[in-house]
Amino acid sequence: MKSFTYDRATSAAGAAAAVARAPGAMFLAGGTNLLDLMKLEIATPTQLIDVQDLKLDRIETTPDGGLRIGAFVSNTALSAHAVVRRDYGVLTRAIQAGASGQLRNKATTAGNLLQRTRCPYFYDTNMPCNKRKPGSGCPAIGGCSRQLAVVGGSDQCIATYPGDMAQAMRVLDATIETVKPDGTTRAIPIADFHRLPGAAPDRDNVLEHGELVTAVTLPAPMGGRHFYRKVRDRASYAFALVSVAAVIQEDGTGRVSFGGVAPRPWRVEAAEAALPQGAAAVTRRAFADAKPTDDNRFKMTLATRTLAAVIAQAKAERP
């Protein structure tokens, strides 16, 4: 690990300005992903701005009946919150499907959304990687790609977004609140937050350097039955081969987001109209532009079968 300076922020705008002033500065919150990246020298910040004193750890109801979740709320606290368990069950189930209990105690809401890919080529610093070093190449294309994207990739990168929580946030239509270095704020719909790799796979999201996530807001509860089903190589502490976050209404309509298949939570709203016709009809539209490799073509079938299991469970639980 390379040397760096360390400071504790006293205000959100101050933290954003401090990071903006130094091209090599980064925010530090729970650190569950960043410290791993620093140990491997994939991330080499010259300055860390610790934001844990900013009191961004509250969960509050909003005037329109929704929920505002501070950026520093731990995954454990969020998944266990009574309102989340009652009205946003897909979020509780997604969080509890991820990582270990110890990691969920430290991982934060903002940090979870910002975590970087677990593509093995990204973590192997002896290999080129366009996401780690733009222009160096992508050996995953033509290499071992079993865990990697079947849709949304580019000729520069086929890494997947690794998180579970974001899949739930996507079907709930969450909004990410930020503060910029000049003190202004903005609200970013989660549909626009994570980027596809295109020709710039090193940029995972639309944040500017120094822009700090302060909260995530959820709209009023939408009702329905909430599901998160994750298929992985072992029963716990593993990233998804395929996951499905879904909210299914009594009439069979609903919302669906797929994880483990794309560089960002993969929700195609136009495909959701086919939910009453069954899983195959949905995935046929959601993955219409898929470009799987021989290694990961199985994910297409797995996504259909996982969604089919969710739909069957929703039907079985109808009163």
Automatic annotation (TrEMBL):
Superkingdom field = Bacteria
An example Pfam family from this entry, by short name, is FAD_binding_5
What are the protein's UniProt keywords?
FAD, Flavoprotein
Tell me the first and last residues of the signal peptide. Answer: none
Transmembrane segment boundaries: none
Q: Where is the FAD-binding PCMH-type domain?
A: 1-223
Matching entries from PROSITE patterns are given as: FAD_PCMH (PS51387)
Which InterPro entries does this UniProt record tie to the protein?
A: CO_DH_flav_C (IPR005107), CO_DH_flav_C_dom_sf (IPR036683), Diverse_Substr_Oxidored (IPR051312), FAD-bd_PCMH (IPR016166), FAD-bd_PCMH-like_sf (IPR036318), FAD-bd_PCMH_sub1 (IPR016167), FAD-bd_PCMH_sub2 (IPR016169), Mopterin_DH_FAD-bd (IPR002346)
- Record's protein name: Aldehyde oxidoreductase FAD-binding subunit PaoB
Q: Which gene encodes it?
A: paoB
